[in-house]
Amino acid sequence: MGTDSRTRIWWALAGVVVCIYALVPVLWIVSLSFKTTDTITDGSFVPRSWTLDNYAQIFSLDLFTSALVNSIGIAIISTVLAVVIGTMAAYAIARLDFPGKKTLVGVSLLIAMFPQISLVSPLFDISRAVGLFDTWPGLILPYITFALPLAIYTLSAFFREIPWELEKAAKMDGATPLQAFREVIVPLAAPGVFTTAILVFIFCWNDFLFAISLTSTSASQTAPVAIANFTGASQFAEPTGSIAAAAVLLTIPIIIFVLLFQRRIVAGLTSGAVKG
Amino acid sequence: MAVPVRPRTAQAPGTAQAPDTARRRGAVGACALLAAAALAGCGSGPVGPPVLNFYGPADGAAQYGAAAQDCTAAAAGRYSVVYRSLPKSADDQRLQLARRLVAGDDEVDIVGIDVTWTPEFAAAGWIERFPEDLAARVREGTLEGPLETATYQDALWAAPLNTNTQLLWYRKDLAPTPPATWDEMIDASEALAEQDLPSYIEVQGAQYEGLTVWFNTLLTSAGGGILDEAGTVLLGDGDAAARALSVMQRVAASPASDPSLSVAKENDGRLAMEAGEAAFQINYPFVYASINTPPPDGGGGGTFLDEQGRPSATDTGRRVVDEFAWAPYPSVVPGRPASPTIGGFNLAVSTTGGEQELAFEAIECLRNRDNQLRNAVEGGVPPTLEELYSDPAFQEEYPAWEAIRAALDNASVRPLTPAYTSISIVLSDRLNPPDQIDPAALVPELVGQVEGAVNSEGLVP
Amino acid sequence: MTVQSRATAAERQQPSQGPTKAQRSDGKRAERRLGIMLAAPAAIIIVLVTAYPVGYAVWLSLQRYDLRFPAEQSFAGLANYGAVLSSSYWWQAFGVTMLITVVSVAIEFVLGLALALAMHRTLVARGLIRTVILIPYGIVTVVAAFSWQFAWTPGTGYLAALLPTGTAPLTDFGASLAIIIGAEVWKTTPFMALLLLAGLALVPEDMLKAAAMDGAGPWQRLTQIILPMMKPAILVALLFRTLDAFRVFDNIYILTNGANGTGSVSMLGYNNLFKAFNLGIGSAISVLIFISVAIIALIFIRLFGASAPGSDNTGKR
């Protein structure tokens, strides 16, 4: 009994260490975002005086609001397209036999390993020549491409687990193919599709290299790039507070996803064994 | 593989719509941004006179914005100029402008470019050559050095908006007679250190453009040069490069030097001087305005000094500003005046905007006497029009005007080549940290690196 | 891998479902057509946005093509590769990238394994821990990089405050690299831990119990049973993380922007592209990075026998 409670304490302690490990850098940027201009350089982990000025400041900058709109719009469109295209391909890979299947699987695996920088120089030159430079589609296309392997792997892993016999059973019971699909397959496949969508969204939301290389103005610049380009209010002022506030805003969707869909994300990450 | 020299024409008609809508949204956003910054002039919608977008550096945005407004008013409805601020750092400004121009952005009409970018932008076909009649008007009354920075292959590609040059700023209590040469200055600094007095020589030693400027000034002051006009590397000729490098090495390795010299930029030098730690400082005239400006925008006269001249926490009634003085940039070769490197901004017309003729007209207005005077007085950047140096309003704001004027007359220009940025990057990479410089070994290495950069064969780090 | 065994099972099932031979070949043809139609959009996008640009990058890398000298574009053969491979900047960046990759993946593996073992064993607050460690995985890299940058900035940061005054870690080569590696490790250890946790679930519990009965200590059980059983999962995790670490860009861009020789090969490619506007040299660097990544993947697959998930549906094991 004594050793058992001692091990419990050790495990609890380990849990605390893990929480500190994961949360301290996040809490630090949150803390910075609430500090006032004159206390931001005091090096204290907890703000000595609190303010919302930094948030007011970044929203007064149209630069950041438009970047946020770009980030959300580009990430959502890319996610929807990648998941739709990925679902089709994953269904084909998991359920159907067709020529070129192995090639498709192999090539998308190759893309998962592909160094993005290798695509930046040709994409920059191509997109400026065809007028896609600094536009939404100019970012959405590479995002879809790099999200596709993630989507295909995660989804085909999910699809393989779906008991497809149920569809047949439903048809035998008199359901039309559409009904069988809607009543049986969709509810079974939806969690996988949803999980994939979350992972793809996180990937698009996170991207920096494509965003900084293929955009130049508020027309398509995404939030991570806007933050990296923040400048202080005057010649000698550092934009620390604004960066921190913007960084916190970028983290909020991630925290929401993690809190609500923790199980799904873990399942998605490990089933495909692919990271974007 | 069609690679357009003028990318605008290469845009496929079918694809034009998406970027256009996106651009319009961007333009609306930029208007709102300008409104927030209390800069009017954005009211003109789709109807009305053509809008000329003037992209320039973030520092001085208030003055450039005011000039844009004045020029809009002066144009009496023929065009309006809107100032759009670029990022703060020069690298980011260049990056953003170049990317837009390379992609054929038709919303860029007038660009405010660093003096070192004129050849690059001209050779790449991003800016228009000035028509002869306008070029003649620009040359009239403009200082020689700044004009040179706007000239590439005997043609004028830009109009000098403002200029800049470095002086020696020093503490007259620590150095009653300012040193005339670098050797004298290093000796004086070491003598001060031995007496445990403030001894630092503040100069730009960090790995960035400022370090290249320091090297270029020393090199040309010693009679050498980086490149000639034909693009031949001159670094290996004579002993000028070795002399320049040994000065840099001595300053950095001296026991009297600032330990953080290898990361010091202009502002660090200003702060060290205002904190009472430095005896000498090589810097631009903004340091004078700064020390005389109350905090938080300026140094507020600097820290208090005790009787010996050390910084003091108590109110001694004497501040750094009371001992703050200026002198010509120290020589490398005794008796031969130094040739400080010229800085500043030029105005050019983009090849991608649609209104080149109006843009040229607007440039003449943006750099006229009144606007240059405002930039000088409110923005701290010396003008390029010769006559302003005798203007009382300018002289009052720039007590060091005579020294500035003299420095501009002796000025040296950084190499006028499209590859300048690559040259500067490899130079500042090899010169940092300055205390590790081995002049004999470094000169041939620099020659090789610069040759690679000039021929766009080498890498930049 | 679980994925593979499932796939084989699914494939074995299918043919047995077809009723007659004639129907089957008809159905087969329809199935092929449907399969191609469903896979076509993905294939088209991949070709358009990846295959074509890769080919274009190779072509660009053989050109002298500097946007600042548009008139001087010409075929340059392998000159760009010569320039890159003979440049100390490339080898410096390559060394830095390798160092970051090897050190951070090694640390991540050890920490990730510890975390996976802890999560596997403990029942206390398992959900909470899994939630918490997903935050580093999900957070935007730029955001995390800024957090570390501010933490190590003298005057501003709580971590810099612990150092003696006058030290600025991000201006020093060694300290900067350590901070970059720390930022990488922080962000990706959870991912490693989750992959290893999935592998850990495959280790049969009775085997461990039996070994414990036979007197094997915890260390022996780890090295002689758990790790060998987990080998496929470990290799896949290491492969993906190694390739991912090799393309490190975001953290360096924010933390040091490559100052003091801390730039990675991705930074070098970016700088030659967007500071020097040299598409020829920049593309040569891009292609060389691609080749490096391919070599690393080959080493993993040939030397360690890592089987990439789904790369071979029939399953070798």
What does this structure look like?
- The complex is a heterotrimer of chains A (276), B (461) and C (317).
- Chain A has 276 residues and is an all-alpha fold.
- Chain A contains eleven helices and no strands.
- The radius of gyration of chain A is 23 Å and the shape is globular.
- By secondary structure, chain B is α/β, with parallel strands linked by helices.
- Chain B has 17 helices and 13 strands.
- Chain B has helices at residues 17-36, 61-74, 90-102, 118-123, 132-139, 144-149, 182-194, 209-221, 240-253, 266-274, 286-291, 356-366, 369-379, 392-397, 401-409, 420-431, 439-454; strands at 51-56, 80-85, 110-114, 151-152, 155-156, 159-164, 167-171, 200-202, 278-283, 304-305, 311-312, 324-327, 343-349.
- In chain B, helix 2 (61-74) links the parallel strand 1 (51-56) and strand 2.
- Chain C has 317 residues and is mostly helical.
- Chain C has twelve helices and two strands; from the N terminus they run ααββαααααααααα.
- Chain C has helices at 2-17, 21-61, 79-85, 88-121, 126-138, 141-151, 173-200, 205-213, 218-246, 250-255, 265-274, 279-303; strands at 63-64, 74-75.
- The longest helix of chain C has 41 residues, at 21-61.
- At the A-C interface, helix 1, helix 3, helix 4, helix 5 and helix 6 of A face helix 1, helix 2, helix 4, helix 5 and helix 6 of C.
Terminal-residue CA separation of chain A: 46 Å
Strand content of chain A: under 5%
Query: How many individual helices of chain B?
Result: 17
Question: How many beta-strand segments of chain A?
Answer: 0
Short description:
The complex is a heterotrimer of chains A (276), B (461) and C (317). Chain B is α/β, with parallel strands linked by helices and 461 residues long.
Set out the fold topology.
The complex is a heterotrimer of chains A (276), B (461) and C (317).
Chain A lengths: L1 H32 L19 H8 L1 H34 L5 H13 L3 H14 L5 H26 L3 H8 L4 H30 L2 H6 L8 H6 L11 H33 L4
Helix pairs in contact in A: 1-11, 2-11, 3-6, 3-8, 4-6, 6-8, 6-11, 7-8, 8-11
Chain B lengths: L16 H20 L14 E6 L4 H14 L5 E6 L4 H13 L7 E5 L3 H6 L8 H8 L4 H6 L1 E2 L2 E2 L2 E6 L2 E5 L10 H13 L5 E3 L6 H13 L18 H14 L12 H9 L3 E6 L2 H6 L12 E2 L5 E2 L11 E4 L15 E7 L6 H11 L2 H11 L12 H6 L3 H9 L10 H12 L7 H16 L7
Parallel strand pairs in B: 1-2, 1-3, 8-9
Antiparallel strand pairs in B: 3-13, 4-5, 6-13, 7-9, 7-12, 10-11
Helix pairs in contact in B: 2-13, 8-9, 8-16, 9-17, 16-17
Chain C lengths: L1 H16 L3 H41 L1 E2 L9 E2 L3 H7 L2 H34 L4 H13 L2 H11 L21 H28 L4 H9 L4 H29 L3 H6 L9 H10 L4 H25 L14
Antiparallel strand pairs in C: 1-2
